[in-house]
Amino acid sequence: MTAADKASARVAVRLKWTILAIIVLMAGALGLKAWEERQSAHVAMLSALQAQAAAIAGRMEGRAETAEVAIRLVAESGASRSAIAAATPGVDAVLSLKDAQQSPAGSRLQVAAVTAASLLEQGYRFGVSSQGDIILVSNPEQAGAMLAIAPAGTWLPAVGAGRRVTLVSGNTRVGSGDPALEAAIASLNPGQTRLTSAPDFNRLATACVPLDGSPAAVCESVLHPLFTLDDLVRLLIFALLLAAPVLAIVGLMNRLSREDAVSLIEETREDEADRIMGLVMRSARAGYWEWAPGSSAVFLSDGASDLFGMDGSGLIDVQDMLRQVHPEHQARMIETLEKARDIGWIQTQFLSHSEPPLWIEMRGSMTQDPTGKTSIFGGIVLDITDRKQSEDRVKAAERRLRSAIEGFNGPFALWDHRKRLLYWNRAFALDFGLQDTLRPGISYDTIMIARTGAIRAEKQSSEDARTMIVELQTDRWLKLVERPTADGGLITVGIDVTENVHNEEELKRQKQSMRKINLELERSEGRANELARGYAEEKAKAEHAAHTKSAFLANMSHELRTPLNAINGFSEILAHELYGPLGDQRYKGYAHDILTSGQHLLDMINDILDMAKIEAGKMTINPQPIDPVDPVDAAVRMIRRKAEDKGIQIVLEAQPGLPDLDADHRAIRQMVLNLLSNAIKFTDSGGTITVTVEQSGADIQIGVTDTGIGIPIEDLPRLAKPFEQVSGSRDRNYEGTGLGLALTKSFAEMHGGQMSLSSIEGEGTTVSILLPISGASERVAEEDAREVA
């Protein structure tokens, strides 16, 4: 070997070592860059996890503060332990520290007392006991130290598989979520954030946030795969970045020895690189493209050609490529290419003209060609059909959800984690009068202020502190329930409970009525002992008088009605000429007068006998639950013809939805008939009589108002007494016994009600009957019991 050959060989060896060193340095630099990007991704992941843990810690601190304030306020007010527990939902027990310290050793309360004493000594507000309970402490000066015990599991959010939220305090660990992660996080320390390896090629990311006012910390752990798709893509990219110069350098090295072989090797390497790139792109259902602005041709790789439904790669006419775009999207594609020259980038989505059609996303940016003289666009095309279909399914699900929410007849609202409005239904806007106020993003507090005009009253539910009972200005009652969502948001749902509230009010009224009856019975028992002797003496006299009066009433009933019925019967035969004409029409008129007078006399006798029975205590009623409108309507129908014959209009006005009335149907009808008869008697032709039926508190009020002659105010006090008539002092143009109002008043009092009378002389009269909705049956039963006794 010549010296020149040796020198050439030494130069070649040195060059090879130099090139090898360059390759090693490039590989090291790329590896370091890959490691740096991976570490940055880890930092970002841990930061996001830290934020989530901080959010959970914030909610727990807020809940602890709320519970502490409630315990302190109620404790200082001297309320019972049950009142304190009711004011702090989710708390198992509330007691003084002194009571807890006296519990048996090793018990839950004794362990809680030890923990509470330690917390007070260190100046903390709450902590975790060794048995996994959250201990809340309060030390008001007036009431002494108190503690509350709550299961830690109820304060931690529910998470799914691969996630776990842990409350860490010393050696105590309490968590919720995936139990498989419990062993992996056993060595956690408060405030520690780390990323550790886990079985099955996974990594466990853990972030801890200390709780303000507590020695404990909230830790959230999430299981991630050791290598994600982003890691693999990043590794592939760096491998390709390293492979290209390595191939070039290897080619250059070979070129130093054999130029022809180098050329072949370079072509082979380039083809191999293209083949690998093509495999990668096809696996990702993607392709590469290049286009020079103003050029009529575009370069498409094999993967890109496949997506466009074209054969082969290389330069393709732009118009041919556009023909592979769906006709509806061609105009948008042309506009995108034209704008690309000005903005320097391309990003669009379109539907292909293939069968079946594919959704394709085209992305790219402007770069310089290797010479640096020409600007070209380069980028990738991706098959996003699956993603589009998933988006369509999500949108369809959202539409179905919106339809379901709109179909819900109660108010509904959804808020994000910052309590900003995301969605609401029509009922939410209408019920609270917020049609002109609602918009996405408006704050929860703003809505709470804006809705006050539509709310008449609001109170907290006795069953749930997070539930409010709201009375609207429209007389409707809503039960508003608010619950948190998994992402920290809030859902507001309203349920119409108007009927339930009315039922509760009715039940309260009935209970008050029962209490009044009980009090009356208790007072009566005291008086009964004092009157026992006098009652025994008077009883014998009363029984004798009642027997005498009963015999008289029986005789009067028979002796008066029997001949009177005969007179009425014969006069009716004559008036109707049943056995032939009477001849002179005056006889027929006389017969009709006899019949009218006889019927009037019979009615008077019946009224007198009824009044006598009432005074003798022989008149009874049979109260049953009835519709209060039925007997009133029956009375109106019975007397309507009589009113129409006189030219008087009767109007019945009944309030809808009235409750059943505990009353005697016949007695109610008779009372209304008496009042209507009086109204017709004292109302001139063309007048109006209005009958009303409505609820007044715990009573049903029946009113009869006429437009008749009215009653002087000085005569009102003596009416409703037997045989009293105002007309008697002025004229005798109005027939009657004066018993109608007296009978009506007596029937009303037998039901436990009352009758009232008001009138303006010359304008009309109003008679009102006020009957209790319930209680008539009990009143009759009491009277029967007294009679038996």
TrEMBL record:
Natural source organism: Hyphomonas chukchiensis
Domain Histidine kinase: 555-775
Keywords, in A-Z order: Kinase, Membrane, Phosphoprotein, Transferase, Transmembrane, Transmembrane helix
Regions annotated as coiled coil: none
EC number(s) from the headed UniProt entry: 2.7.13.3
GO MF terms, alphabetically ordered: histidine phosphotransfer kinase activity; phosphorelay sensor kinase activity
Domain PAS: 298-344
Protein name per UniProt: histidine kinase
UniProt xrefs under SMART domains: HATPase_c (SM00387), HisKA (SM00388), PAS (SM00091)
Catalytic activity: ATP + protein L-histidine = ADP + protein N-phospho-L-histidine
CDD domains linked to this entry: HATPase_EvgS-ArcB-TorS-like, HisKA, PAS
